[in-house]
TrEMBL record:
<dbReference type="InterPro" id="IPR050765">
    <property type="entry name" value="Riboflavin_Biosynth_HTPR"/>
</dbReference>
<feature type="domain" description="CMP/dCMP-type deaminase">
    <location>
        <begin position="1"/>
        <end position="118"/>
    </location>
</feature>
<feature type="binding site">
    <location>
        <position position="199"/>
    </location>
    <ligand>
        <name>NADP(+)</name>
    </ligand>
</feature>
<keyword id="KW-0378">Hydrolase</keyword>
<feature type="binding site">
    <location>
        <position position="195"/>
    </location>
    <ligand>
        <name>NADP(+)</name>
    </ligand>
</feature>
<comment type="similarity">
    <text>In the N-terminal section; belongs to the cytidine and deoxycytidylate deaminase family.</text>
</comment>
<keyword id="KW-0560">Oxidoreductase</keyword>
<protein>
    <recommendedName>
        <fullName>Riboflavin biosynthesis protein RibD</fullName>
        <ecNumber>3.5.4.26</ecNumber>
        <ecNumber>1.1.1.193</ecNumber>
    </recommendedName>
</protein>
<feature type="binding site">
    <location>
        <position position="202"/>
    </location>
    <ligand>
        <name>substrate</name>
    </ligand>
</feature>
<dbReference type="InterPro" id="IPR016192">
    <property type="entry name" value="APOBEC/CMP_deaminase_Zn-bd"/>
</dbReference>
<keyword id="KW-0511">Multifunctional enzyme</keyword>
<comment type="pathway">
    <text>Cofactor biosynthesis; riboflavin biosynthesis; 5-amino-6-(D-ribitylamino)uracil from GTP: step 3/4.</text>
</comment>
<feature type="binding site">
    <location>
        <position position="149"/>
    </location>
    <ligand>
        <name>NADP(+)</name>
    </ligand>
</feature>
<comment type="similarity">
    <text>In the C-terminal section; belongs to the HTP reductase family.</text>
</comment>
<feature type="binding site">
    <location>
        <position position="163"/>
    </location>
    <ligand>
        <name>substrate</name>
    </ligand>
</feature>
<dbReference type="InterPro" id="IPR002734">
    <property type="entry name" value="RibDG_C"/>
</dbReference>
<feature type="binding site">
    <location>
        <position position="71"/>
    </location>
    <ligand>
        <name>Zn(2+)</name>
    </ligand>
</feature>
Amino acid sequence: MDLALDLARKGIRGANPLVGAVILDPAGAVLSSGFHRGAGTAHAEADALANAAASGADVTGATMVVTLEPCNHTGRTGPCSQAIINAGISRVIYAAADSTADAAGGAAALAAAGVSVDGGLMAAESTDLNHRWIRAAQEKRPFVTVKSAQSLDGRTAAEDGTSQWITGTAARTDGHSIRTRADAVVVGTGTVLVDNPQLTARNAAGEDAVQQPLRVAAGHRPVPDDAAIRGTDGRFLQLFEHDPAEICRELYARGVRHLMIEGGATVAGAFLRAGLADELVAYIAPVLLGAGTPAFANLGVHTLSDASRWRWDETDGGAARLVGADLRLRLEPVPAGTQPVDVPAGTQQLEG
Ligand SMILES: NC(=O)C1=CN([C@@H]2O[C@H](COP(=O)(O)OP(=O)(O)OC[C@H]3O[C@@H](n4cnc5c(N)ncnc54)[C@H](OP(=O)(O)O)[C@@H]3O)[C@@H](O)[C@H]2O)C=CC1
Ligand SMILES: Nc1c(N[C@@H]2O[C@H](COP(=O)(O)O)[C@@H](O)[C@H]2O)[nH]c(=O)[nH]c1=O
């Protein structure tokens, strides 16, 4: 299960949980393994089975160890419970139960088909890995990624409102990869009126990605008829709304399961203050602005003990990475009831 959890951590956060799977032969040797790479791609179980098939491994009578109870529904991919039964796996050991209404029931389906099933092994670790995704699923709202591109001193625009560009091409392309995974991208009307953003997902060459998010402007001021965000593909929506919970509710009702907040400071701050940010991706450029728009406004933090504390997210290649000339940081909220750690695991400490 340790190995399966390590595999799960390679995945990408978004509409779906992080899941890893390992298939063992009756002697306990690893036959194959797999993990989930995000919504629309193979589930970890299917990935492990496909990898076994590709390497010619016989999984008949094998044991599958998986970090989440196998799903029992046909979503964008087929039910894993049936794939496991069809493959002839005779035992499944999973960590956390799948509590989502439409995917639950996999353990029962496996047991009914004669597969030996045990749940709960390292469930706490699996739940911790996906604690924000679980919360979003329970609250029936999208998983929310807040992205910002800021100067070294935390500014997202200079004093006069100019902000294009703070980060370099590679970091912006990386940000576009979040757009293409998200079902919707939100900016406030402030950003629409100052920046006139397109908000499409584009590759390094500036070409549109195949998968495009819904482009959403939040706020009461009208979005001009010729605003770039409107586009021509019909994937534009204005929500005359400030309340992040309402924005989430409205977008969830429209099928949005992964929401990206691109800013500006007012809208991003509102999501953070409402506790509706599940993931923070901050691109930090080696540039100083001294004054200007902060990354997040109106957090309601007046004294240090009220600070919004986060922890490093070591999944998907690590919490800190240079992307071109800029630093990409990825963080997640500290789970309720957990103390933030002073020194994140894996941090190299300078001696002396
Ligand atoms: N570097 C970066 O990553 C980014 C930089 N920017 C920069 O930031 C600046 C814009 O920042 P900002 O003005 O904060 O823009 P926002 O995009 O956050 O827009 C703020 C406006 O949105 C509406 N609104 C929506 N939700 C709320 C809410 N919960 N509370 C209050 N108002 C809400 C209000 O307008 P209304 O009156 O219409 O309702 C408000 O004035 C620009 O200079 C832009 O270039 C912007 C995005 C990213
Ligand atoms: N300035 C800034 C960003 N700004 C964000 O990108 C939007 C522009 O998107 P588009 O018109 O589609 O290219 C802009 O309105 C704001 O939300 N992003 C970054 O990665 N780095 C940057 O330096």
